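Obj: model holo form, ligand = 3,4-dihydroxyphenylalanine.
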Amino acid sequence: MSDIGADLDALSLAARERLAAASSAEAVDALRHHLLGRSGELTALLKQLGSVPAEERPALGQRANEVRGELESAIGVRLSQLQAGDLEARLADEAIDMSAPGRPLRAGHLHPVLTTMRDLREIFHAYGFEVFEGPEVETEEYNFELLNIPPDHPARDLWDTLYVAEPGSIEAGESRPATDGTILRAHTSPTQIRAMRALDPPIRVLTPGRCFRYEAVDASHGFEFFQIEGLVVDRDTSLADLKGMLEEVARALYGRDVRTRFRPGYYPFTEPSVAFDIGCLVCGGEGCPACKRSGWMTILGAGMVHPTVLRNGGFDPDEYQGYAFGMGPDRMTMLRHGIGDIRLFFSADLRFLGQFSEGR
Ligand code: DAH
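Output (holo structure tokens):
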């Protein structure tokens, strides 16, 4: 046998090793092309057949055909091995592990401000207060006039009010669109009148709800925020009742050690009026940026219901007295958790909100 016979054997052997090493159908295809293609290695050997002696040619030709046959079937075998391997891998991939633990479901929870409002409702419930709700879209009459704030009174400037324009008046391009006195309530105090007109004494109601103001939004102001109004009307109530109760409420909400104080305040619908402060929870009273270096933080306004307001609610001030208070649960929640920016409450950022999941 000439060298071609040895070359054929070597080619066959080397080809099998390379086939075994081919790890994808593409690699096998490339190898097939390289071995059996028109300018492949086997073809090159066949071309040399013309130069061997005539008597050796038939045997060598037959050997070459055998080698081609062997390689083709080896290629077929390798391809099906690879396909089977793929399938196995895919099956392993798709297999369902029945013993694997389930993915945890993300359960929602209350917004921190809502948690504070519910806590307050619970605390005041113990003092006999019931919830009495009023509308968010109000009238100037309830929001101001009936609360002893006449149209041209400078105290109106305390509330930057959002007016609802009359239909068509904005399209008309007027610089001051017409309004029929419909507004978004600037505080929850209008419900004082609604409660007095709707309920029989003694009255003890709590009005939680959303309020709206034409405010430039910053770290401590939102154009939309919550208030909780409280109102008591009875034959024999006094500022002392109000003070004692508010001190207890502060302790229930912020802990027994919280310090409290009352300061004189001004509201047109109460006389006298007070502001109620707690010792700063951030610095403990030494003075810090959060309490504007005063050591105190105001959490609500309150006072004895003004005789005019009692009369507007249908009560004779010689017979009945009342006290009222208005709280800001957004601010109270900020104090509770040391939150520095009110805008976070409306940001819908779960990295922030997710920190308050303890609130049921
Ligand atoms: N309505 C007041 C405000 O928005 C808060 C307030 C103060 C309510 C004193 C009251 C009160 O009932 O007695 O600023």
